[in-house]
Specification:
heterodimer; A: alpha/beta; Rossmann fold; six-stranded mixed β-sheet; B: seven-stranded mixed β-sheet; 14 helices; elongated; ABC3_permease_C (chain B); cell membrane (chain B); transmembrane helix (chain B); membrane (chain B); MacB_PCD (chain B)
């Protein structure tokens, strides 16, 4: 733990990705706390986190297991509520939104990429990628398919649309997951250890894909990772320890 | 989106083949049993020839009889009693008398033909509307004079005289008595026990049946009102006629006229002496059986849906993460249950049709041309869909309320 803390202070700042200057704040976290309470134990997952994510940024979040990285991502992704503090999306606090409105915001603004892909095994690659559009009003079947094809082309899987997740390699599955996140054309992609289950070559491929997305489409990306080298390729690296942001 | 629901519903059904099979078997057998049961009852008590107007018919098969020195008995009336006192029940009411079906034997080319003979008077043919394929019924005059005439069923005509051979005017010998065939009627199912026989002949009451002052015997009174609205008047006329029967001071007769449906229920249950009110017991048992039959697959569906929750946690989490609301997810899971229920329903209809086709040729339901009732199928399917909806709604609600974070955390995809 202390080593990691030390490495946070010693580590070089990421420089690889081009920075065009901070855009408007798309996500603003102020005094965010997340406490898991059981009858006997109180666990602080996030402790007064203040963080701003700007439009077009590629931010990586690092820290040891259990330090609150994934909780942070869940709160940013409107999947979980903070115990206290304020989360603003595009300048508007989200706490007042109903469940239905939060679902709509997730659908339009946010795309998720998970470490273990989380594809629906019963659905084909194309059907998996269509998923965000399925819940979007006004998008018909034809448009859904077209956009899903386009997203799959972007990740180089245009020829695998009829396959099922079980027929793909880990890297291919993660590319499908990225295509799914892209299909809805969200402003923000939240990636939770997207290369965690992949070998280094596949991991590099996925990382390149995310960097290209950020660079060419200006998609805001927040990525949780354990891979220092990959984190260094992003514009900003945030480190967490015991629920607190340490750099 | 609905098409997508259907697609995932189909995949889910295929994924858990064993559970799907169990559920389909449960639903389809329930519907099959309901359909077959109702079809059998309908064939026994529905509006078919010869009882085409069951709402106008009453059957005096039994009466409560108390004679001096004895307790009360439930007995059949004698020919004498009906003929003497109950033949005239007012204008517009047709009255007929029939006796117990007798087993008789006829021989064709040395082969024994076991036949059921029903003795009737001429009024029998006015009360019941048989479908005559050839000839006509015998008249009251012929019946009273004891003329050796008979009306036979199409099957009997075929077996005795040969397929396509004319029967009317020919002689049929049964139990060494030669009958002249005056008419051929369409086959009557055995379940239509008031009318069923292979041949009908003029009633020749036994000495006991004809004996004056003996009210009990083995006969049956059949009554047809001019309209359904006239049935209460017919009942009242019967009561008056019964009240006019001269009796000792401590003797009493009370007729128990029953509708066709009541007589079927009575026939099904009364012989077991379970109750003095077999019709009510039949209705209670039928209602209970239907409720139980529908409840069992519903409970099975609930259990299956709840057990599916865990395995589908990942999918729920994913769908929520990408914008599905709790309502949308609940809708999806309900659609899945409904698809399963609908499939089970269609399978049940198919099974019922097959079973009824098999039953049509069996001894139990001889001549019964059974068809599954589409109206009953509609109601049964609607009931199953409602149960399916209810059984799917609770698990769907629970699944939809599952926290996306928790679902994703515990899922391994």
């Amino acid at each position: 733990m202390t080593n990691l803390f030390a490495s946070a202070t010693d580590s070089p700042q990421p420089v690889a990705a081009p920075v065009a200057g901070p855009g408007r704040a798309v996500l603003q976290l102020t005094g965010i706390e997340k406490v898991y309470q059981t009858r006997t134990i109180e666990t602080v997952a996030l402790n007064h986190v203040n963080l701003t994510i700007h439009q077009g940024e590629f931010v990586s979040v690092m820290g040891p297991s259990g330090c609150g990285k994934s909780t942070l991502l869940s709160i940013m992704g409107l999947l979980d509520e903070p115990t206290s503090g304020t989360l603003e999306l595009d300048g508007r606090p989200v706490q007042s939104y109903s469940d239905k409105e939060l679902a709509r915001l997730r659908n339009h603004k946010i795309g998720f990429v998970f470490q273990s892909y989380h594809l629906i095994n019963d659905l084909s690659v194309l059907d998996n990628v269509e998923l965000p559009l399925l819940y979007r009003a006004g998008v018909g079947g034809k448009e859904r398919r077209q956009r899903a094809y386009a997203a799959l082309e972007k990740v180089g899987l245009g020829a695998r649309t009829g396959h099922f997740p079980s027929q793909l390699s880990g890297g291919q599955r993660q590319r499908v997951a990225i295509a799914r996140a892209l299909a809805g054309e969200p402003e923000i992609i939240l990636a939770d250890e997207p290369t965690g289950n992949l070998d280094s070559v596949m991991g590099e491929e996925i990382m390149d894909l995310l960097l290209t997305l950020n660079r060419e489409q200006g998609t805001t990306i927040v990525m949780v990772t354990h891979d220092e080298q990959q984190a260094l390729k992003t514009q900003r690296l945030i480190r967490f320890f015991d629920g607190s942001q340490v750099s | 989106m609905f098409f997508s629901y259907l697609k995932i519903a189909w995949k889910v059904l295929l994924r858990r083949k064993f559970f799907t099979l169990i559920s389909l078997v449960g639903i389809s057998f329930t519907l099959m049993i309901l359909l077959v049961g109702v079809a059998l009852y309908d064939r026994a008590a529905g509006a078919y020839a010869p009882e085409q107007h069951p709402d106008r018919l009453l059957f005096g098969s039994y009466m409560q009889l108390k004679m001096s020195g004895n307790g009360e008995m439930k007995v059949r009336p004698s020919y004498w009693l009906i003929n003497q006192y109950l033949r005239k029940l007012g204008p517009g009411t047709q009255v007929g008398i029939s006796g117990e079906v007798q087993a008789v034997a006829a021989y064709v080319g040395g082969r024994k033909l076991a036949l059921a003979l029903k003795p009737t008077d001429g009024g029998f043919w006015q009360v019941l509307q048989f479908r005559f394929l050839a000839g006509r019924p015998y008249s009251e005059q012929q019946a009273r004079s004891g003329e050796a005439v008979t009306v036979i069923s199409a099957r009997t005509a075929r077996q005795y005289f040969g397929a396509g051979q004319p029967a009317v005017g020919q002689v049929l010998e049964a139990n060494e008595k030669r009958y002249r065939v005056v008419g051929v009627v369409a086959d009557v199912p055995t379940m239509r026990f008031h009318a069923y026989a292979d041949l009908w002949a003029p009633y020749e009451p036994s000495a006991l049946e004809r004996q004056p002052e003996v009210p009990f015997g083995e006969s049956e009174l059949l009554m047809l009102a001019s309209s359904a609205a006239a049935v209460p008047d017919m009942r009242a006329a019967l009561r008056r006629a019964v009240a006019a029967i001269p009796m000792d001071d401590d003797s009493r007769i009370a007729f128990l006229p029953s509708t066709l449906g009541e007589s079927v229920a009575d026939r099904l249950l009364a012989r077991y002496n379970w109750t003095s009110k077999p019709v009510q017991l039949f209705q209670a048992l039928s209602g209970g059986a239907v409720a139980l039959l529908l409840l069992l697959p519903a409970l099975n569906l609930i259990s299956m849906n709840v057990s599916r929750m865990r395995e589908r946690a990942s999918e729920i989490g994913i769908r929520k993460a990408f914008g599905a609301t709790a309502g949308t997810l609940a809708g999806q899971f309900v659609v899945e249950t409904l698809v399963l229920t609908l499939l089970g329903g269609l399978l049940g209809l198919l099974l019922a049709a097959t079973l009824l086709r098999g039953l049509s040729g069996s001894y139990l339901a001889a001549y019964g041309d059974f068809q599954p009732s589409l109206i009953v199928f509609g109601w049964a399917l609607a009931a199953t869909l409602v149960f399916g909806l209810l059984s799917g709604a609770y698990p769907a609600w629970r699944m939809a309320r599952l926290s996306a974070v928790e679902a994703l955390k515990h899922a391994r995809t």
